[in-house]
Amino acid sequence: MAPCTIRLCSNKSQSNTFKENGVTFHRYPKDPDIKSQWVAATRRFNWNPSQYSLVCSQHFTEDCFINLKNRRRLLASAVPTLYLPIVSFATDSDEPKPSTSNPELQKKNDLTSPATTSIPTPKKPFPGNPSDYTTPSGKRLCETILKLNKKLENKNKRLKNLRERTRYLGEKIAFYRKKFRECLDKDF
User: Fold this and answer.
1) Pick from 147, 141, 139: which is nearest to 63 by CA?
2) Polar residues bias: where (predicted)?
């Protein structure tokens, strides 16, 4: 009953089935990095998917799927790339600028003209998207690299926490040694 969340896509999960139309619907992934790439692909700004939000299979390439008996599974690292709407934004070159010979008036026009902002595009994570690769081994390698990068990031966070704890405990030991020496000096 839920519609596809890609902008301008009219597929609904109630009216399209895999057996009839070959269309499947997929929930947003739990991995925050891949989920953010899916949200960027919807071309909806300031929007977050709910737990019921879906994307239809028409927005994925065939190599993003694993076909089972009567099911079709999406690879964990797949990102929608097909039939995405093109959203354009006005730039400075799109707006005609008034030409004046008076420099004071020209400066005033420049100050009053609205500034345009560009929306930053998310950086493509190294080594890229597994759907960019044409061979299954390339996809597996890409997925492995992405998983290892995530593990490395977690290990680096843990290492940083352990270093901070070691520094804190070292300071604590130095403090108690100083207090111990002060106590020894007072007794003698």
Assistant:
1) 139
2) 111-120
Nearest to 37 by CA among 49, 25, 22: 49
67 membership: H or E segment, kind and range: strand 65-67
Q: For residue 81, is pLDDT > 80?
A: yes
Q: What is the DSSP letter of 54?
A: E
Q: Are 168 and 159 in contact (CB under 8 A)?
A: no
Cis peptide before 127 (omega within 30 of 0): yes
Is the distance from CB of 20 to CB of 43 less than 8 angstroms?
A: no
Confidence check: pLDDT of 128 > 90: no
Give the phi and the psi of residue 77 in degrees, each rounded to 5: -105, 15
